[in-house]
Amino acid sequence: MREDAPRGDITSRYFGGRWQMAKGKIIAKANGVLCGLAVARYCFRKSSFCTDYADGDQIKKGTVIAEIGGRLNDLLLAERVALNFLQHLSGVATETNKLVKLLKGTKVKLLDTRKTIPGLRELEKYAVCCGGGQNHRLDLSDMVLVKDNHLAGLRSGALLKRIKRFRFWRSAKKIELEAATLRQVEDFLTLPVNIILLDNMPLAKIKKAVALRAKLNPQIKLEISGGVSEKNIRTLAGSGVDYISCGRITHSAAALDITLLLDAQ
């Protein structure tokens, strides 16, 4: 709100109605999953805000999401910020829900990533949950995820030593290792870790990794990442993995079309 009007709303100050009252309706212009009501309510905190819906509800085109009322200038000041959050977060929830529906009937869970807009991570990850997905890790402090660039800096045989040391000091934290080859998968299955991430592997290799897991260490979970889309997610889920992570649901979700119609009194 401060960013949008650092020195006030000069348009409404000189061309609006300072004491004029108004009512408005926030209306969905497309089908989707609603998210961001608490943020919108806060934006309109100087006005009345009434809704029969909750975050996570399925809404249809034409749905009156909320009715607002108060001084016209207050409504105009909050309008754009409230809609920006509602549209973006509902878009994330809707995109997530599309993939979650495609996973229905499987045991695979859809996870988000850290590919979020700086400053909006908690809200975007909340939107993922509203769409039926699950959060992977909120930030770099949440859990260990050893990727190829970490491995490049480790000497031969150092990985197991580092894992044991970490387990001693931070036993409650999960450890995940990223594997780009089946050889890495086989090696990692002998280590005391929780999850192995199969990074950008083709389906044939994913199935071989699942078979290796069943043979060597069934307790370790397998996650797929890279190239996930509506077209292939169901096929990938049938490979026998536990998780599928997708950055697109946060970094590329299209905003849900939502508008505000005002009626001055």
UniProtKB/TrEMBL annotation:
<dbReference type="InterPro" id="IPR002638">
    <property type="entry name" value="Quinolinate_PRibosylTrfase_C"/>
</dbReference>
<dbReference type="InterPro" id="IPR022412">
    <property type="entry name" value="Quinolinate_PRibosylTrfase_N"/>
</dbReference>
<comment type="function">
    <text>Involved in the catabolism of quinolinic acid (QA).</text>
</comment>
<comment type="pathway">
    <text>Cofactor biosynthesis; NAD(+) biosynthesis; nicotinate D-ribonucleotide from quinolinate: step 1/1.</text>
</comment>
<keyword id="KW-0808">Transferase</keyword>
<dbReference type="InterPro" id="IPR004393">
    <property type="entry name" value="NadC"/>
</dbReference>
<comment type="subunit">
    <text>Hexamer formed by 3 homodimers.</text>
</comment>
<keyword id="KW-0662">Pyridine nucleotide biosynthesis</keyword>
<dbReference type="GO" id="GO:0004514">
    <property type="term" value="F:nicotinate-nucleotide diphosphorylase (carboxylating) activity"/>
</dbReference>
<dbReference type="InterPro" id="IPR013785">
    <property type="entry name" value="Aldolase_TIM"/>
</dbReference>
<dbReference type="InterPro" id="IPR027277">
    <property type="entry name" value="NadC/ModD"/>
</dbReference>
<protein>
    <recommendedName>
        <fullName>Probable nicotinate-nucleotide pyrophosphorylase [carboxylating]</fullName>
        <ecNumber>2.4.2.19</ecNumber>
    </recommendedName>
</protein>
<dbReference type="GO" id="GO:0034213">
    <property type="term" value="P:quinolinate catabolic process"/>
</dbReference>
<feature type="domain" description="Quinolinate phosphoribosyl transferase N-terminal">
    <location>
        <begin position="9"/>
        <end position="90"/>
    </location>
</feature>
<dbReference type="Pfam" id="PF02749">
    <property type="entry name" value="QRPTase_N"/>
</dbReference>
<comment type="similarity">
    <text>Belongs to the NadC/ModD family.</text>
</comment>
<feature type="domain" description="Quinolinate phosphoribosyl transferase C-terminal">
    <location>
        <begin position="92"/>
        <end position="260"/>
    </location>
</feature>
<dbReference type="InterPro" id="IPR036068">
    <property type="entry name" value="Nicotinate_pribotase-like_C"/>
</dbReference>
<dbReference type="Pfam" id="PF01729">
    <property type="entry name" value="QRPTase_C"/>
</dbReference>
<dbReference type="GO" id="GO:0009435">
    <property type="term" value="P:NAD+ biosynthetic process"/>
</dbReference>
<keyword id="KW-0328">Glycosyltransferase</keyword>
<dbReference type="GO" id="GO:0005737">
    <property type="term" value="C:cytoplasm"/>
</dbReference>
<dbReference type="InterPro" id="IPR037128">
    <property type="entry name" value="Quinolinate_PRibosylTase_N_sf"/>
</dbReference>
